[in-house]
Design goal:
Layout lengths: L25 H6 L2 H5 L20 E6 L3 H13 L3 E8 L2 H13 L13 E3 L4 H7 L2 E4 L6 H10 L3 E4 L7 H16 L4 E3 L7 H11 L6 E10 L13 H7 L5 H4 L2 H4 L2 H10 L7 E7 L14 E7 L5 E8 L6 E8 L2 E4 L4 E4 L3 E2 L7 H15 L6 H20 L3 E2 H6 L29
Helix pairs in contact: 3-4, 3-13, 6-7, 7-14, 12-14
Length: 442
C-alpha cells in the first residue's frame, strides 16, 4: 500500500531464504516458485560494497524521490538503526526536495539527517549524485524511472531499497530481472517495498497456508477498493512534462495505472499464497466511470481481473479508486479444508487459527532486514517476487486495456515500452485512454 501518501507493508515469507537464485530463464521465471529457486546453489563473487569493522559503523543512505513515500522510507530507515545517516537526496523538483528535507530535519530522526546543499540534486539525472555519495540507496520515485535508477545503483556497487512496482512495462521488468542477477553476483542487497512480506502476521498465515492448513487451494480472491488519492492540479507555468510528472499517478507511463502502482500489494499476496508461481493467463475488464475528467490523465478508475493457474485454480482480483464509495482491502485463499483470511490473519475450517498479539511495523521491518543484511554481509535479494508481482499486475492491465486473454509468456515478452525515449521540459502528449477491443497488444 505505498504510493506518494502511503506507508508500506512487509518482509520475507517465513522460512524463505534471504537469497534467491536469479539466474533462471524466462520460462523458469514464470513457472518456478521462489522456494525452488532459493534451493539452488549460489556462487560468491566477492565482498560487500559496505565494509564494516563492527556494528557501530555508520551506513550512509541516500534518498531518490522525495514525496510522501520517500520521506516516510527515510524516516523508517533511520528509526531502526541509530548509526544510519541520510547524506544525499534527489528529486525531479527542488520544492519537493526542500519540503522533504525540512520534514526530516524536524522529525524524531532529525539528528541523523546530514544533507548539505552540495548533496541535494534535482532534475531527471539527479539520482546519480545520490548514488555516488551513499552506501545504500532508497528508490521512491514514480515507478517508470525505477529500472534505470536500480541499474545505476547496482552498477555502482550500492545496496538498494526498491519501492514497488519495479517498472510500468515488460521491457522494464526484464531489465530489473537482469539487474537483480547482477546484484546477486556482486553480493548486494535489493529489498523490495512489497512490505506485507515483512509483516510477521502475514508471514505466519502464509506459512500455515503453505503447510496445508486450508488444504489444497481451490480459489483466491483479493480486493483493493479505495477512495480518491491526491492531485496537484496544474499551474500555467508548468510544461506538459512537469504537469504529468507532478501528477504521475494518473499517467500509465509513469505509474503503470493503479492496478500496478497500488493494487500490486493485493496481487502480490495472491502470488505469495501460490508460492510465487506465476498464473498461466488472465482476463480482465476496467474503465473510467467516476474519474472521467482530463485532469486524471489516461488511467482507469476500476479493474476486475481473473487470473488462472495450473489445475484450473482461479484468483479473482478487484480494485477501484472511487471517492465517496465504500472501501475494502481484503484477501482470501479458499481450500479443501478451510479459508485463510490473509489480510485479517485468520483461518477458519478444520484448522482454526487467529494471529495473536500486535503485528510488527512492516515499514520498519523491511529496513531493519536491509541494514542487518548489509552489516552481516548476508545479502537479501527480493528480485524474484518483486518482478513477478509487477509483471502479474501489468498483465492484468494489459488484459483490461486490450480486452484480450493475456498469458504470462505474452506479458513477459511484450515489446510495448511506455514513456518517452528521453526526458525534457517540453510538450509531451497524453496517450489516448485504452479502448478494449481496439487497443492492440504489443
Amino acid at each position: 500500500m505505498r504510493n506518494d501518501i502511503e506507508q508500506h507493508p512487509d518482509a520475507l515469507p517465513a522460512g524463505d531464504s534471504s537469497e534467491r537464485n536469479e539466474t533462471c530463464s524466462r520460462r523458469e521465471f514464470l513457472h518456478t516458485g521462489s522456494a525452488a529457486l532459493a534451493a539452488a546453489a549460489i556462487a560468491t563473487y566477492g565482498g560487500s560494497a559496505f565494509a564494516q569493522s563492527g556494528d557501530k559503523d555508520i551506513i550512509k543512505i541516500g534518498l531518490v524521490g522525495c514525496g510522501g513515500r520517500g520521506t516516510g522510507a527515510a524516516v523508517n530507515a533511520m528509526s531502526v538503526d541509530p548509526n544510519v545517516r541520510l547524506v544525499a537526496m534527489a528529486d525531479t523538483f527542488g520544492d519537493r526536495l526542500a519540503s522533504s528535507l525540512g520534514h526530516l530535519k524536524d522529525s524524531h530522526v532529525g539528528e541523523q539527517v546530514q544533507v548539505d546543499a552540495e548533496r541535494c540534486f534535482t532534475g531527471f539525472e539527479g539520482f546519480h549524485g545520490v548514488i555516488e555519495n551513499s552506501d545504500v540507496v532508497l528508490l521512491a520515485t514514480p515507478p517508470h524511472f525505477r529500472p534505470e535508477q536500480l541499474a545505476a545503483s547496482v552498477t555502482a556497487g550500492k545496496h538498494v531499497f526498491c519501492e514497488k512496482p519495479v517498472a510500468t512495462d515488460a521491457p522494464g521488468v526484464r531489465a530489473v530481472m537482469e539487474t537483480c542477477k547482477q546484484a546477486r553476483q556482486k553480493r548486494l542487497s535489493v529489498v523490495s517495498g512489497l512490505c506485507y512480506r515483512y509483516q510477521d502476521a502475514k508471514q505466519e498465515i502464509m506459512r500455515r497456508v503453505h503447510d496445508g492448513a486450508v488444504g489444497d487451494i481451490t480459489a483466491l480472491q483479493c480486493t483493493y477498493n479505495t477512495g480518491g488519492l491526491w492531485h496537484r492540479g496544474r499551474k500555467l507555468e508548468w510544461s506538459d512534462m512537469e504537469w504529468q510528472v507532478r501528477n504521475w499517478l494518473y499517467f500509465t507511463w509513469l505509474s503503470g495505472d493503479h492496478i500496478v502502482e497500488q493494487s500490486i500489494h493485493s496481487i502480490d499476496k495472491l502470488l505469495w499464497a501460490m508460492q510465487d508461481r506465476m498464473p498461466l493467463r488472465c482476463v480482465a475488464s476496467g474503465g473510467r466511470i467516476v474519474r472521467t475528467d482530463d485532469d486524471f490523465g489516461n488511467i482507469y478508475d476500476h479493474f476486475n481481473t481473473t487470473y488462472e493457474w495450473e489445475g484450473g485454480i482461479k484468483g479473482f482480483h478487484s480494485c477501484r479508486q472511487w471517492p465517496g464509495a465504500d472501501s475494502d482491502v481484503s484477501d482470501y485463499a479458499f481450500g479443501t479444508k478451510g479459508t485463510a483470511m490473509l489480510q485479517h490473519h485468520r483461518i477458519t475450517g478444520e484448522n482454526e487459527w487467529r494471529f495473536q498479539g500486535q503485528a510488527n511495523d512492516m515499514y520498519e521491518a523491511e529496513m531493519a532486514a536491509l541494514f542487518r543484511a548489509v552489516r552481516k554481509d548476508e545479502p537479501i535479494n527480493d528480485g524474484d517476487y518483486m518482478c513477478k508481482s509487477t509483471l502479474m499486475a501489468i498483465m492484468g492491465r494489459m488484459a483490461a486495456y486490450t480486452g484480450k486473454v493475456i498469458t504470462s509468456e505474452q506479458a513477459l515478452n511484450s515489446t510495448e515500452k511506455l514513456g518517452p525515449d528521453r526526458y525534457s521540459w517540453s510538450e509531451i502528449a497524453v496517450e489516448p485512454i485504452a479502448q478494449p477491443g481496439q487497443t492492440p497488444f504489443l
